[in-house]
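Reading group handout, session on sequence-to-structure problems. Before we discuss, look at one worked example. The prompt was deliberately terse, the way you'd type it at a terminal:

> structure MOSC domain-containing protein

The input record follows.
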Amino acid sequence: MHLLSINSAVATELEIGNKTVTSGIFKEPLSGDVQISEFGVEGDTIVDTNVHGGEDQALYLYSAADYTWWSKQLGGQLSPGTFGENLTISDFHAGELRIGDQLKIGDAVLLEITAPRVPCVKFAAKMGDPKFVKQFVAAQRPGAYARVIRAGTISAGAPIEWRPTEQDYASVKEVFVQWHQKAWHPDAVKRALHSPISKIARGIIEKRTGVSS
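And the output record:
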């Protein structure tokens, strides 16, 4: 695994129906060394902090392997940052990414996976297709949020070491699939809430299921 691109955005206006909203989803690749703090890429814009950002969702990761799949589905090449991710990596790994897995980037930065990305209307508007949220959900390729365990400086091309959790935590895909069901499976709720999942996701799961951690 290795880091292909580090992406950041400035606040940009986005048209959704008859409304104009501000978004930080238009990520563009950065060059050279980039500082990663506990809140993510320094200088990046996060507008809707109710569902994005914070210490537990400091960075959003997406893989080139999934980009290849999407390019075939959408009929064209997609550049890094298209899905609003901060870090574009070569692949997640041969297995299934879990909440609590850690990724060491280069010699300095250490991340912990905390939640899948849940698509919203801003994402659909950015992709120019109001039906894209349903397509993204059906694809079950959500990418992952991560918290920064150790901050530092990274640059594109850095190697990534995957450190799988030894705990039986919920997988990113499992949480994503359950998120879009009418009702959560009790075992899935237990595994998700037992994991080091993000505070934002934890709060939403507890509210929807009535189960408290």
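Points for discussion. First: The domain at 3-166 is CATH 2.40.33.20 (M1 Pyruvate Kinase; Domain 3). Second: The chain is about 25% helix and 25% strand.
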